[in-house]
Description:
CATH superfamily: Metal-sensitive repressor, helix protomer
Amino acid sequence: MRHTTEGDIKLKQRVHRIRGQVEAIERALDAGEDCAKVMQLVVSVRGAANGLMAELLEDHIRLHIADPARDRDRERANGTRHLIDVVHAYLK
């Protein structure tokens, strides 16, 4: 996605954290934990997945639509920055 090894490593680290969180849900269910604790674990996974999606969407925008740091069209660059900000705010 990011077309860089460093970017791929960061994305994979996010996926590993999500996997660990999902495994924590499974362990909590197996242990018969309180439903409130299980729901909180699920909320954590949802937040982590949304963060991953925001990163993926930002990368896609920068790589395939427009990169505000490189776009000479100031209006387009501002629109791209705004779109990226909206994506992050929506998926918070």
